[in-house]
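Need the bound structure for 4AD, inputs here:
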Amino acid sequence: MKIKSLFKIPATGQEVTVRGWVRTFRANRFIALNDGSTLGNIQCVVDFESMDEELLKKISTGAAIKVTGNYVESQGKGQAAEIQVTELYVYGEADPESYPIQPKKHSLEFLREKAHLRVRTATFSAVMRVRSALAFGVHKFFREEGFQYVNTPIVTGSDAEGAGEMFRVSSLDTKNPPLKEDGSVDFSQDFFGKETHLTVSGQLEAETYAMGLGEVYTFGPTFRAENSNTTRHLAEFWMIEPEMAFFDLDDNMDLAEKFIKSVLTYILKECEEDLIFLDNRLTQEDKTKPQAERSELSLLEKIKFVVENDFKRVSYTEAIEILKNSKPNKKKKFKFHIDEWGADLQSEHERFLVEKHFKCPVILYDYPATIKAFYMRMNEDQKTVRAMDILFPGIGEIVGGSQREERLDILKERIKAMGIDEEELWWYLDLRRFGSAPHSGFGLGFERLVLFATGMSNIRDVIPFPRTPQNAAF
Ligand code: 4AD
Ligand code: MG
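Answer from helper R.:
Posting the output first, comments after.
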């Protein structure tokens, strides 16, 4: 049986078998066993007088075992029920001298170096169960909204998105690549007959599918070779990108807000126990911080706040006014001073707006065309585009999206102005040649959502094996 199922049934002395990994073994008598199905451990009580002494010696933290016994109401405090062990089998021992995950508090930094074993801790198992439930919540939401799930390519031959630096995919001999006459590498002899990269986004391909299936979404890995060593950036992260025909920017914002609220509501119900545990963890961690850095709300309160309140919608122009007149700007506390319209917003500005000024999730829209991608729809003012970013407390940008430019002539102008090769985007432009229609979409960084939902503070701790600059261990 799974321990999760066991906890749901009354303990009437019936015989049960469970399998898992030993969390602790105390007094040669009490095994706390966990199988990953749930946060809690089942207490297994062995009668050391009748048990084989050699067998008991093999039991220590980390060992994989099978336990059969009678499931009874517990005599001791701390648990409602326990298993009185009649049979014990050890699949694999874990030498206490070398097994790194001991029953004590390990730092998150230490556990990052043991990423292959860290899921055997309460914190990481809770985080990963929440992550898994969120992923399911994503599919559930879109399915119920009538969206089709599409898989866009991971290896891409177009690098026109401009979302960030790309990783090259190549099978050429690095020591001895074929060269062109001018001495540069001849990628026409590479595997795909051209230069290829790992995708930074599935958006452009998703747009083609929206123009036939109507409402679609992608949910897959994306890759960015930006050298940003922050607690919010990964070189490999998962992104959810819905794309909707006939949606304008307001429809897009409505959907994004409904979507985030829906998946958070889903985990509040599905992951209650794990979230309460993570809530306590965050409260403990907060106590070690200086007063000013502590959060006003607990994790559960933060999630509920997002679910229950409208996101504040503010235009870029309004945001710049607020920032210009803000205390940190006047006192030159921002690293990047805001003095005029057109400035790109840095995360310090986004966090000021969300955490200090509005104190709630904010949707910023209508950004200057100069700081946004070529495909965003030009407004009548000829200065701003129909872009929107959703900013979250403690996270900063969690969603980036826009209404797409559906007018062929204007799109071509924008492509030219940005110095992109039009030829490369021939198929993308075809969408504007044949049955073009208004459409919109956005991208949500899945790990940023998991960060918010779990209250963890480093994005490296919400993905099983993080890829960051100088690190691709495991
Ligand atoms: O704002 P971005 O770059 O938008 C796009 O890629 C669009 N093509 C999306 C669309 O309209 N379909 O990225 C979208 C989101 C960001 O808001 C952020 O949450 C996340 O992806 N993100 C990252 N997450 C982790 N590590 C990184 N290096 C990230 N870069 C972006
Ligand atoms: Mg963005």
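Comments: The chain has a mean pLDDT of 95. Residues 137 and 263 are 5 Å apart (CA to CA).
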